[in-house]
Amino acid sequence: MTGLDPKVALAQARSDAARARLSTTVSALQHKASPQVMAQDVADTIKERGMEAMAVAVDTAKRQPVPVGVGLGLLGLFLARGPIAKLIRRATASKTES
Description:
90% of the residues lie in helices and 0% in strands. It is mostly helical.
C-alpha cells in the first residue's frame, strides 16, 4: 500500500477491520444456528425450566400440603378412571349374576 494517499490507506485499513469483524460475526452466527447447538440450547432451557417448576411445586406442597394432596389424589383418580370403571363393572356384573 505504499504510495497511496494516507486517507485511502486509512479507509482500506478500516474496511479490512470491518470485514474481519463481519466474518467473525457470521462464523459465530453459523455456529449458533447449527442444529446440534440449537438442540442443546433447547434441552438446557427445558431442563432449567423444569427444575424451576419442580422447586415451585415442592415449595407449594410444603406450604399447603392438604390442598396439594387432594389435588394429587384427584389427578390419580382421573388417570386411573379406566381401571376403576372396569372394577365397578365387574363388581356390578357379578352381583347381577348371583
